[in-house]
Amino acid sequence: MEEEFHDKIIIKNLLVRNVTGVDSWERVKRQPVLINLILHKNISEAGEKDKLSYSINYGIVSKAVSKFAEDSVSDSIEALAEGIAKICVNECHVPRVVVRVEKPRALLHAASAGVEIIRTREDYSLNDSNSNTLPIYNNNRQDVIFVKDLRLSAIIGVNPWEREEKQTVILNITIYSDFNISSSQEGNVPKPHNYRTIVRTISKYVEESTYQTVEAFATTAAKIAITQCQVNKVTIRVEKPSALVFAESAGIEITRSQSYLADEIRHISQPYLNPLNGKGFGNTRSTIPERAEAIKTALPKGYNHFAFIGLGSNMGDCFKNINEALQQLETICKCKVLDTSFLYETSPMYVTDQPNFLNAACKIATNLKPDELIKELWAVELNLGRSRENTVRNGPRTIDLDILFYDDIDCSTNTLVIPHPSMCEREFVLRPLCDIAKRFEHPKLYKTCEQLLSQHLKSPNYDKNNIVRKVLPIQNSKWIWNSKTYIMGVINVTPDSFSDGGQFYSVESAVSHAEKLVAEGADILDIGGMSTKPNADEIPVEEELARVIPVIQAIRSKGMTDIPISIDTYRAAVAEKAIAAGANLINDVSGGHLDPDMYRIMAKTNIPICLQHMRGNSKTMLKLTQYEDIITDICSELFERVERAIEAGVKRWNIIIDPGIGFAKDYQQNFQILKRLHELTGENSPFEGFPCLVGPSRKGFIGEATKQPDAKKRGWGSAAACSASIAGGADVLRVHDVKEMVDVAKVSDRIW
User: Fold this and answer.
1) Torsion sign (Cα): 38, 41, 46, 48
2) How confident is the model at residue 157 (pLDDT cuts 50, 70, 90)?
3) Environment class of residue 628 by beta-carbon count within 10 Å: exposed (0-12), middle (13-18) or buried (19+)?
4) Using a CB cutoff of 8 Å and minimum separation of 24, what contacts does 127-134 make?
């Protein structure tokens, strides 16, 4: 019976020149493509009668396939394979065909990459043969994506000499993915798991790791493909060419699936960047699917699309314009803002005779289609005083809103091009995008935002004099991160603080001290009304308010209107009233976890916040100093609080992090934090991009190291700790001795 498809007609390694996606250097140009076909046809009658008319003429098939491949331009290798299958089935009347399309120049470090699909006459029977739609079928066949002979370098082996030098390891990867769709989408090929993304992700992890066995190497590669790239099923073959003297190679092959790793997927800590992105930094306790599902349930019904929006302003109050635009995205545009980037001051491009811009990016969820969304964005621009008809192209504007990405679509109309066509030449777009979508892949260029930025910075056309600097508007000033270390002067309006308790307990003494600190060079004042030293007693909210509110009001009434004021509290009610009295920053030693209403107040007031790492409270924190790894555990616990703040609506640019020296840390752990602070603040660290505050001033670990019981006499030790903090990447120092630490910071800044 013909349906059994036992007989095969084979066309092997048909070479064509075709434009399919990009080449190994990610350029859109003609590339060699190898096509292998297996045509299933009962050839019994042709064999008996010796007549070709009872079979399939492979010459005709090869000519038809070659013409189609040479003449067509495909966005993906999957689209090319699907087109070839349709030619075989619909035009050459092949009952069943296996199409294997292979690109020898697909990847720099692999022999080739490609796909293999199986199609039958029945797959297309429900479709118009002239239609561009994809087949509809309900069978269990799986199409596969493959990468052949990916060559990586890694430390691998149990012998001592194998631990000294990297050796070549060859990977063959087969991804089983049903990328056909159950209902046709005209003109689209459903996007499979991108082999570039998978290879990039696996390569990064395995080349930075050291393994003793190929078993561990292969298992890790499979886990990465499944847990990080969301592959359903994968086969990994690993070979060591240098393993045996008298053999070409030795290795193993394993197959793993999501069901096989179900328990691990549920419990594994995965990198997380922002809601529903599932890519990026930090380690969290819950998994990406759990987070995504939690956020989805909080979104309005139908908000199933996600977009990245670029924001810019250089007229009027730029900071206010951007904040109002974000607010109107939610109130007018039927969008939910999921995350925001940091803020950047940037020099103008194209038309340079105009003021600098303030730029940012945000991620939104929406139920609007792209053409609907852009019209709503134009309406917001109009509301904020910008008319596109009356605005000079690339000239000054109160607000500029652009769709950078919308889901992963690639589209072009008379009014809209997605992805944004000019983003790759604009650092003021790529920098904010990398804050919230560092590993999001451009659907047309097949590069991540991080790669696009790196490529732009290395371009011969890149202007090194171009200004792109991270900023924080606060009170009547603008902090420029990485330009200097900012000094936060401490004013404890308490009778029992460990260093200066009772010294500034009255309003008059506190205001006098504030004037002194400002004169000595403080950039911000930190006012606290309740001691958080170990074993400190908690006081009523009313008493804390009675201590801090009069001081804040008195400082402002004294004419100190430009100096920012921080309120040091973990209580939402105190923070809210302090802000109403004139405070500009919430400094929460608990990172928001001691008051369930704090994140809401932080989002509502829309001012800078400092989230500190802490366990327990003042009474219990010294009993909670057990860590597997002090930095890893701080990262995990503190980043969870950062996430909660962002999910509550706090802008990323308003967040400062603090590792919490002295809070649930013992003597050695405090020094470990200073020694390894760069692991929190450096490039590719969990908190890359977030400003960091460190507060070692006069604390007990300094007294223990210097054998100085009097906290007021720990100035030299504090200076050393502050200098070490700056070396580790601190942006703000919370100190008691402002005059001395300003000098420490000035010298340290020149070094580091």
Assistant:
1) positive
2) confident
3) exposed
4) 127/184, 129/90, 131/184, 131/186, 132/186, 132/187, 133/184, 133/185, 133/186, 134/82, 134/180, 134/181, 134/184, 134/185, 134/189, 134/190
Closest CA to 4 of 37, 32, 44: 44
Q: How many CB atoms lie within 10 A of CB 580?
A: 12
The residue ranking higher by pLDDT, 638 or 501, is: 638
Query: How far, CA to CA in Å, does 680 sit from each of 131, 446, 481?
Result: 55, 30, 16
Name the pairing type of β-strands 468-474 and 524-528.
unpaired
Please report the pLDDT score of residue 123 as a whole number.
Answer: 85
Name the residue among 374, 402, 398, 403 with its Cα closest to residue 387. 398
Instruction: Assess whether 699 carries a catalytic annotation.
Output: yes
Q: What amino acid is encoded at 247 in this protein? A: A
As a whole number of angstroms, the distance between CA 220 and CA 583 comes to 50
Query: What does the pLDDT look like over 86-120, one tens digit per residue?
Result: 999 999 999 999 999 999 988 889 999 999 999 99
Which residue among the candidates 699, 714, 739, 746 is catalytic per the annotation?
699
More confident residue, 128 or 604: 604
691, 693, 694, 695: CA torsion to nearest 10? 180
- Please pick, among 141, 734, 746, 750, the residue that the annotation labels catalytic: 734
Characterise 168 by phi-psi region: left (phi > 0), alpha (psi -120 to 50), beta (else): beta
Burial class (CB in 10 A: 0-12, 13-18, 19+), 122: middle
The alpha carbon of residue 263 and the mean position of all alpha carbons in its chain are separated, in whole angstroms, by 25
- β-bridge partners, 305: 366
Query: In whole angstroms, how far apart are CA 312 and each of 309, 319, 429?
Result: 10, 9, 9
Asked about 447 being catalytic, the answer comes back as: no
Lookup: tokens for 605: 């007031």
Give this prediction's pTM.
0.80
For residue 213, CA distances in Å to 99, 153, 169, 192, 210 come to: 36, 14, 12, 31, 9
Rounded Cα gap, residues 602 and 586, in angstroms: 8
